[in-house]
Specification:
This protein has about 170 residues and is α+β, with helices and mostly antiparallel strands. It has a single domain, classed as Heat Shock Protein 90. Helix content is about 35%, strand content about 25%. The protein has six helices and six strands, in the order αββααββαββαα. Strands 3-4-2-1-5-6 form a six-stranded mixed sheet. Strand 5 (about 120-130) and strand 6 (about 130-135) form a beta hairpin. Helix 4 (about 105-115) runs antiparallel to helix 6 (about 155-170). The longest helix is centred in the last third of the chain and has 18 residues, at about 155-170. It is globular and about 40 Å long.
């Protein structure tokens, strides 16, 4: 959530969130891409320092440094690429079965909250589990809704159920 919030603050109109759970390769890969303002080389070099932040309300930014640390503690790796005016790509690879890997968390609630709270941003969410895949593109949903808000109660209820059903299907062996 913190990494996606960074993208929103950077003015992104499109954000991709990819979660790839691959037990055979023993990897969990989380990638967030955006078309926000991007970062220059100097900022990019300092972004993993917790005392580097674009916030004005506090002087510490922990999202990226903690994400990097969490991946590296599992024998994984962390990469960030950015270009001014083009956007940013953050990728963390975790050791899937590593004892220090934190749980993935509630992706249904996280994505639901991001989508309904930031409906001006197009979110492309892809979740893969051992070859099974679920993709959600808010552009398609918005097109079907024809101008009805994603924050409309009935839409929010439907979206939550849609996310729940499709996420659950990733973990069943059919």
């Amino acid at each position: 959530m913190d990494i996606v919030q960074n993208s929103i603050v950077a003015g992104a109109s499109q954000i991709g969130v990819e979660v790839d759970e691959d037990s055979a390769e023993d990897k969990l890969t989380i990638t967030v891409t955006d078309n926000g303002c991007g970062m220059d080389k100097d900022t990019l070099a300092r972004v993993c320092d917790p005392f580097t932040t674009g916030r004005t309300t506090r002087r510490v930014g922990l999202g990226i440094p903690l994400f990097k640390l969490a991946a590296e503690q599992t024998g994984g790796e962390f990469r960030i690429e950015s270009e001014p005016g083009k956007g940013t790509r953050v990728c963390a690879v975790f050791g899937y079965s590593h004892i220090d890997r934190q749980p993935l968390g509630d992706m249904v609630s996280t994505m639901h909250q991001l989508i309904t709270a930031h409906e001006m941003v197009d979110i492309l969410y892809t979740h893969r589990v051992d070859g099974r895949e679920f993709c959600l593109d808010t552009r398609q949903i918005k097109e079907i809704l024809g101008g009805v808000s994603l924050a409309e109660h009935e839409v929010m209820v439907w979206l939550l159920e849609y996310l729940k059903e499709n996420e659950a299907s990733l973990y069943t062996n059919n």
